[in-house]
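pasting input
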Amino acid sequence: MSEQIIPIVMPKWGLSMQEGRLSVWHVKEGDVIEPGQEIMDVETEKIANAVEAADGGLLRRRVAQEDMVYPVRALLGVLAPVEVSDAEIDVYVAGFEMPQADEEEEEQAPAYLFVETPAGRLRYAERGSEGDAIVLVHGFGGDLDNWLFNIDALAAGGRVYAIDLPGHGQSAKTADGGIVGLVDALSGFTDAVDIGAAHFVGHSLGGAISAMLALKDPGKVKSLTFVDAAGLGEEINSTYIDGFIAAESRRELKPVIEHLFADKALVSRQMIDDLLKYKRLDGVDEALGSISASAFGGGVQSAVLADQITRSGIPVLVIWGEDDAIIPVSHAEAVAGAKIEIIVGVGHMPQMEAAGQVNDLIRDFLDAV
Amino acid sequence: MTRKISMKEAVNEALDQEMQRDPTVVVMGEDIVGGTGSPGEDDAWGGVLGVTKGLYAKHGDRLMDTPLSESAYIGAAIGAATCGLRPVAELMFVDFMGVCLDEIFNQGAKFRYMFGGKVETPVVIRAMCGAGFRAAAQHSQMLTPVFTHIPGLKVVCPSNAYDTKGLLAQSIRDNDPVIFLEHKNLYAHESDVPEESYTIPFGEAAVLREGKSATVATYGQTVHRSVEAAETLAKDGVDVEVIDLRTLSPIDNDTVIESVEKTGRLVCVDEANPRCSIASDVSATVAQEAFGALKAPIQMVTAPHTPVPFSPALEDLYIPTADGIADAVRKTMAA
Amino acid sequence: MSATATAVSAQGSDSPFPLEKDDLLSAYRTMKTIREFEDRLHVDFARGDIPGFVHLYAGEEAAATGIMMHLTDEDRIASTHRGHGHCIAKGVSVHEMMGEIYGKVSGACRGKGGSMHIADLSKGMMGANGILGAGAPLACGAALAAKKLGHKGVGISFVGDGASNQGMFLESLNLAGVWELPVIFVVENNGYAESTSVDWAVASDSYVDRANGFGLPGVTVDGTDFFAVHEAAGEMIRRARDGGGPSLLECKMIRFHGHFEGDAQTYRAEGEVEDIRNNRDCIKMFADRVSEAGVISRVETDAVDAEVATLIDSAVEQAKAAPLPDTADLLTDVYVKY
């Protein structure tokens, strides 16, 4: 009977997650769960998020308690059809062993890689070994961990690369060339890692960078996915941009970062601390200042590329959080002929706030391209 | 890129990078080169515990051994700081402040005020502090409250390699005199540290562990013992917030008060002697500013009002322990 | 090095002194300014116009002036509690000094330092100092900075005969020797450490011996003789600038006033003060020599005297009229940023 029993385990988000706190169950024993349904909230050091059910079925047992911390892959709940007896479930729970297989994998494949490019040393992560290359490009002030809920999910369908742009994450902190320099850096990265033509998924400023690359070097870009992207209209929340650059403390930065999310509770202390650690590196202020001046000088986006992208004929998917407070959702309509998906109840970071949906949309789009 | 290094390596790296960044940074102290004028290697020691080892090879005579004359060279560092250098003077053990305190508290600390705001004294005085090294009464003190008492000084006491590198860089770039205290029992402690230079502003505590039941405010070696206590207490469902004050002057009272407003309970842990200590200072501030939020009397866990004993049996009793901190938290929970 | 090294006459000059007439007049003006400043404080302090306490330099003017004439603003001096003369000779504004002594915002330190803490780094004056001997390490620091920053500046440490017994002074002699610093230690030996006689309080008979004990050359000069001080200091300062290292200059001086104002000076011999005022007044001796040599006339020194009297009057007037610091000033200037 135990093959009818399906475990619900603590997910692993991103590369550094080791444990998570189950903050609240959204389902109770006896509920029938659909795949993709939000079944609980989990907080990690970096972020809090809803856990979407990987499998559907009847929730027979809530093994994990609210407000307790569990390691990644620990058993949190049990799905099983009604024919399975409580005794069998007891045996299953008692005998559950956390799978350890990933540890070896992690040791073999380092979490982060570095490559020397003309724009300096860039950090990136690589997942998956087969299929088309997919390059994930973060936005202003972000880094490759902005894709922590996406990189593994997308790796099922391709070789996924997520990079830290110059001036960001753990890449070189020189970004003298402004936005054009970032495009060159992205292009240089694809050459240095020799990934060939790729699908680019760009969030926010990363969308504009990817679009500029597509227009400059069409052979490198098979498709574009814009996630709450810059480059499609003039408006940008300059209070956010300026506030992000200016913030020197947790107290100053937290309200700025809350602009990014529809659910402000997602902004954890660790997220702010990590951003502060990044912002305090020598050269980051100058890099962000230079990028901001060239991309958003005077509070207006300097590159509006929607019509050029339309004319280029390149396949485009646009995903937008309906409650985006940084770049208005109206920009989602800018690329004529693009597939447009507006996600309700999320802000500027749908790849985090509605990761499952975004992953599905990207996978479906790439399958169809 | 980020990798794990020890607190000792973090000190060395911060000095190295700041010397590269700013040619006016010079480093001086007893044995910090460790062999000047001797028949053997010029930089045999690189500091009494090897903290500055390797810097002489890179920066030459910008590192200076000194005679055993703390008054003279600490004073010279302070004087030079008003004349265009950014000296980092190592006092070896903070216990030696007794022989050069005038230069620190009557000279460097007061220049700016006495001279009507017209002088900057960007000097850093590094010293090892703290017990647990079996180094006895004159090589094991914290003495942090002596320095925080003095207007004009900034006082830093980090607990890990990341904070050490960023706070030392900030200390060197800072335009006021800074007393930078390195707990010698933490030199081997490792944490994730970026290779790049970075600074951490003064007056910003770190919340190492969030919790709802009680707040523990501390710094230095007892940070780790407080986290250990919190982990023990978590098993009993007591959810402790641990705050590492990191800098003691300026001190981030706001973070402590904010936390106490959430938890209602406060334990101040300090390896310094109890009278007029950091613990008593934080306790008094919270009692004054957030009395209404307190659900129980504030507890203090400090060293006793004794010199640091030598015998390991006694020294282990002298330093606040994780068990002692956990007991103090239980006491606030019971009240 | 010798105190009796041959004086070098100013070339192409009619002056029999190693200084041109303009420099001699300038030296006279400096000494006279110090004297007038201190004498005025003596009177005004007794009248109760001045808060706190002051230590007067009157009688010792030749030393400060003879040394400081060799220095530029790049050279640094660390002074003592008896610092007014050093300040004036180093070019600190008399108006700002007077304002400071009156505790006014117009003061050199905005009224926060007072007589014992007048400083003006822009003039190379690192501060008078209420802690005896504490200036010696600071002057070493200034010399170290000059050496490391590659300019020709020197550091001058002033101490009295009393503070010359302080550990930090003696440590500094050694440190300066070890680091070969361009620093000159000036011992202003006026015979009294506050009220205690130098003969009793200094076990060594000779400051030259003391310097030599640390491997430093030392010279003793008559500190009331401007020319002797000027010559000896000049040689030491040149030596330091040229990389020759530290040295010690003992100036034997006399103190016209008490340790501080209000000191009844009952420890002094009967008639001692009258005698030195009449017979060993450094300014009078200087004026006599330059006028006897026919370089500067009495008319010219009288004109300087009048100029100086006006200057001090105006400094006092301005200081009295200047506003006191207000409540907000209490809390500012502790840190550059806190």
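fyi Residues 133 and 185 of chain B are 6 Å apart (CA to CA).
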